[in-house]
Amino acid sequence: MAVLRTVLMIILILVSIVFTVIVLMQEGKSAGLGAISGAAETYWGKNKGRSMEGALVKLTKFLGIIFMLLAVVLNINF
Known about the structure:
The chain is mainly alpha-helical.
């Protein structure tokens, strides 16, 4: 069991590092003054889910779930 716990701890550390990097790569949610004039409704604004930013958001959600599951599993006393 100690080997499994060590492996899960290493995976948790790697996931947390990648999670931090992915969050830091994302842009802020503030659109600036462009949102006031309606510039947010451009091609890139409508297709954001298919862009790199959309992929980063999906990866952030996935890594967040993995991080939480690993933290719960490692906290169980077995």
